[in-house]
Structures
1.
Amino acid sequence: IFTQTNEFFQYRVHWFSFFLVYEQWVSGLISFSLFFFSAIVIQKVIETQFSLDNRTISLFSILYLTLPFGLIKFSYSIVPYVLCITLFICGWYFIIKNRLLSLILFFLSFNMNSLLVLYCVPFFSFYFYNNKILNIKNLFNFSIKKIDFLILPFFYFVIKVFFFKPYGIYEKYNNDYELINIFKAPFFQYLDLFRNNLSIGFVIFGLCISILIYKKYPQLFYKTKVKFHYLIVIFAFFASLLPYWILGHVPTFSGHGSRHQLLMLISFPFIFLYLLNFLTKEFYKFFILLILVLNFSINYKIYFDYLIDVKKINELNSFIVNNKNLFMDSNIIVLNDKYKSPTVSYSKISHEWNNALIKRVLKNEKNFVINIEQIHDYLDGKFDHKFTKQYMASEHQRLENPFFIILSIESYGFLKFKFSIHKIKI
């Protein structure tokens, strides 16, 4: 399927082909290693290209590592994006050290297309590294001297549009942009902050970790002068969100959509440190502690939700294996999941996701999985176009008077799940 994206070097195709045989923890380890390596490199970027003291540099790295954005980044399917971000940060590091290597790394990173927009941040940081004052004349002269860096994203874009066009199901991918979305998306972005409930237990846990950091490294909480140019902060904010807003996406904390938050890991440390600069010493210390408490609390809460979901799926797989004969007479499975987490949400890819889970156990694509509220949509033929290999249902056929297997999932007690099935005919 990913060959239809027609990306440079087909990096996602190679990733999925090579690592498909390995367990999930292998891709998680690779993703974590790449992310941790990128944190080391971005610390070097801040250290060498900005006039900051060691405390602020360390705080920037801590924010990059702990901000609760893009928490799906350790998932198998998101590793290629983490790789692109790592290449992007490495390109940023070499921008003042090795011109050719920097250009190559940036070019490769643009396979994650939203980085084409965020590229304005390293470009202008490069400008301010060489010029202390911003004016048209200096910017023009700098752009001429660094013309290769200036035209790089446009060069990539032209090659991609004219020679590497996506096709098939990806033919119109990222083409549904509307300017009106830029005005609507910030409102939904704000509402997304209220989607997840943060229990007091995770807040206490986050507070304990933050206090330990405060006791061990109190110098991180001392106010220092942060000398980011305000344009860097403005560009960082909009460049990390506009690529998604204009397409109608809202970078969310939940499910697969949290991949749209990955760029915020780079931009928001700039934003937070710049805004904290306006606080008094007492409030500075308080808000640093508050940010860290929220970071750790949300991280642990969301990862705990994913842990529960993994346990539920593993137990569901075991239940289907042990009752495989009950699934052979019907090819329509209706999920009645009474334990749904608002964090772990795959609504836009639910059919591919659920069909893949069943295929993995039953070793065929005869089944089609729907949620219990979708029964009438199925009977009306609204899912007929999804009986394909893309949706893991290429062998499925819709019968006139089909039987439905209702697969119910309930929770009874802490981390305990109960599964039951019954067959109905509609």
2.
Amino acid sequence: MKKLFGVLLLVMVVIVIILVFKGSLFSQSNDLKTNQFPVKNSVEKGTESLIKIPGLKVENGILVFNTLEDFTKGYEILNSMDLEKSLEWEKELKFESQRNIFAAVVNAEYNIFLRPYENLNEEQLKKLTPPKVHSDKFKEALSTGVIKLIISEDKSDTTYNYSIF
């Protein structure tokens, strides 16, 4: 019973995370829906980019802003991008954000822990043994420190989040 409760709790947490990502983090702002892009990229001169972020460069896989004002403007622009645009922008810069790594982990975990069980009823779910193996994306993000495991005090439930929280 404890294991079933733990699995159901994990399933609920993953669903909430997915809803949060689909509902707010990856929604486009009205400003970006005008599609006034592409513009010249400030990082690599002469290449086309989805968006211009002044005062930005990538050093050792980290975004570096020249000033606090550049950071603030860049942060607003990056946060307003939908997943598709941010992935394309990151690919162009040869950069991978924690947000998109985390989204890939959530998606991979969803495919293992939830998708196979979406159409099962409660009785069918009770008879199943939940998977015990995480996705390769999860393992990679955990080993590189992007995510961390969160274990409940009574050790009956395990979930994950960004390692910075």
